[in-house]
Design a protein that fits this description.
The complex is a heterodimer of chains A (189) and B (189). By secondary structure, chain A is an all-alpha fold. Chain A contains 10 helices and no strands. The longest helix of chain A is centred in the N-terminal third of the chain and has 20 residues, at 38-57. Chain A is globular. In chain B, 61% of the residues lie in helices and 0% in strands. In chain B, helix 3 (45-77) runs parallel beside helix 7. Classes of the chains: A mainly alpha (189), B mainly alpha (189). Chain A binds chain B through residues 36, 38, 41-42, 44-46, 49-50, 53, 57, 62, 66, 69-70, 73-74, 77-78, 124-125, 127-128, 131-132, 149-153, 155-157, 171, 174-175, 178-179, 181-182, 187, 189, and chain B through 1, 3, 6-9, 15-16, 19-20, 22-28, 31-34, 36-37, 39.
């Protein structure tokens, strides 16, 4: 074999070698948070707080949600250094939120939220509360996705990006969840 | 139902929009990220191990002291000759006390019986060691020599300290038991 062909094939080999993996913005922020950058932690909070808020709102009382969101982010800050797959930070954070909500349920004394009639005396608030209760009665996957979409105002692609779910899954969850919610609320198609 | 509006808010769906409007009151209010907690100080592994060793030594001392106290109480309660034949040390002690009891017979004149109780110097550590070796021989049923289980030259400073504490506790306990025993024997006069 002529020498030129050998060098040519070697050149080809080196040129087709996989390039260094590009770091996504999420991974970069997580890396900076892990390094203790307070500014990065603010960005991380702004990016994921609506998702965590939605997960909590679907599970615990409204007056406890804000405190629990803060707890989740403090726990995340403490554990983010050990996170191996930084691209999956959203799914990891969501699992922390779910565990924290479950923990809260176990330790919380059974209490009843005041009805809208007693507290606000406003029909519109009653209606909102009924809708939220109906969403809370849905299966987990539908509940979280619908709260993110209808309460937090996130779009389907944003939900997919934050939670780590595929866009197809989010689309299915939104469609089926919405259908079930309409049925529960007695809204005809 | 307009799936495109549900997915990424393209187009319009009055039903979904009314749900969004109703639920908007539950939306997360913009706020700052929680204050970052201070990093926990790194724990030095050697200190933890040393603390564990100290706790272990203290626990051993407590257990051994309790065992010795219990054995002493049992020996005091069952003052029959059969129980005192277990070790030569105890037999010797028992013979002395028996003699003392015989001397303190109330039928004899008071002058002879009075000088019975004499305070003895508590050379306790030596006695405890002797008991320990005798018990070991008795349990094994064969001569193992006078080789102690603990070789003091191989102990670390902490272990030697714990060992010395243990010996001290045993000597104190034994001397106290001896005083009690002498008082009980002298109380029959």
């Amino acid at each position: 074999m002529p020498e030129t062909e050998i060098t040519g094939s070697m050149f080809m080999f080196t040129s087709t070698a996989p390039a260094a993996r590009k770091v996504s913005p999420t991974e970069a922020i997580v890396g900076r948070v892990a390094d203790g950058d307070p500014g990065a932690f603010e960005e991380f909070y702004e990016m994921y707080a609506p998702m965590v808020h939605a997960i909590m709102l679907g599970r615990v009382r409204r007056d406890e949600v804000d405190d629990l969101v803060q707890d989740v982010f403090i726990a995340a800050y403490r554990g983010i250094g050990g996170l191996r797959d930084r691209a999956a930070a959203g799914a990891w954070l969501a699992s922390i939120a779910r565990n924290r909500a479950a923990e809260f349920y176990r330790s919380d004394r059974p209490t009843e939220e005041l009805s809208g009639d007693l507290r606000e005396g406003c029909n519109r608030k009653n209606e909102a509360r009924e809708i939220l209760d109906a969403i809370r009665g849905l299966p987990d996957a539908y509940r979280e996705t619908l709260v993110m979409r209808l309460v937090e105002g996130m779009t389907g692609p944003e939900i997919s990006e934050r939670t780590g779910l595929t866009p197809e899954s989010v689309r299915v969850n939104l469609h089926r969840g919405m259908k079930m919610l309409r049925a529960r609320l007695g809204i005809e198609e | 139902m307009n799936d495109e509006y549900l997915w990424d808010k393209k187009g319009d769906d009055p039903g979904i929009r009314s749900l969004e409007n109703a639920l908007s009151e539950f939306r997360m209010r913009p706020g700052s990220a929680p204050a970052i907690p201070p990093a926990a100080p790194a724990v030095v592994e050697t200190k933890r191990r040393g603390f564990f060793r100290l706790r272990l030594a203290f626990a051993v001392v407590c257990v051994v002291t309790a065992a010795v106290a219990l054995a002493g109480l049992i020996a005091l309660r069952d003052s029959s000759p059969v129980a005192t034949e277990t070790t030569p040390v105890q037999t010797e002690t028992q013979s002395r006390t028996t003699t003392e009891v015989v001397r303190s017979d109330p039928s004899e004149p008071q002058e002879k019986a009075s000088p019975v109780v004499r305070p003895r110097k508590p050379a306790r550590p030596r006695m405890v060691k002797t008991v320990y070796f005798k018990k070991q021989k008795a349990n094994n049923g064969s001569e193992t020599g006078d080789r102690p289980l603990l070789n003091e030259s191989q102990l670390t400073a902490e272990e030697r300290h714990a060992y010395e504490k243990l010996m001290l506790a045993l000597s104190i306990t034994s001397s106290k038991l001896k005083i009690v025993k002498d008082k009980l024997n002298g109380g029959g006069e």
